[in-house]
Design brief:
By secondary structure, the chain is of the alpha+beta class. The protein has a domain of about 140 residues. The strands form three sheets. It has a four-stranded antiparallel beta sheet with strand order 4-3-8-9. Strands 2-1-7 form a three-stranded antiparallel beta sheet, covered by helices on one side. Strands 5-6 form a two-stranded antiparallel sheet.
Amino acid sequence: MISWKNVLHKYLSAAMACSAVGAYAATPDPMADSQKQKANVSAQKGPTNTAPSAVAVTATTSAIASERSHLLCTFRISKSGAATLVRAAEVKGEPILPEVSAGPLLYEVNNGAALVSTEGLPDPFEMRSTPGPVGSGIKGHHIQSTQEAEVVVKIPGSKLSDLNLGQLSVTFYQNESGEQTEKLDAAQLHKWKASWKLRRLSEVPAQVLGSQIKLKAVAPNP
């Protein structure tokens, strides 16, 4: 004979066991919740990129370029062979030095035995003039020659504060080759010198040029 009291006891025991299991399953796990929160934060931030951005690289390159400077030295030269520095200015950036010679006057700047810069310039002693006053007899545009002229020499990678200015020298030549070279560099200068195509006009040697730059220096351009 089945005892309803025993059946009811078993039923209540099973129900209590199920309730305990459900309560345990519903209890939150602090460790699991913390890991889920970290995962959600990482997903919101997205992947970490440790490589420098293009903007940062460009900014760094521009900053380095802005630190570079060069000297513009204005010389008064004469056909008799004199050369005197008139002024020296420091300018930010790198100078433009055309590879093709623009004329018969040529200068070279050396730091010790190393070539720093060279450039071919139009004849500075040749002046183009307009017609003269009425009665002067000078008609139309004409060419005049002068005994003195001013030329600008570019010295790249230099500052007025450099300690090696005393090693700089500049030499002016009359290029008598009549050649139009595609690249004016140390090799071309050596070729012309070896064939006696460059006639030296004047030279400002090392030590002298350095002291003149210090004496005739003007404030750097902003």
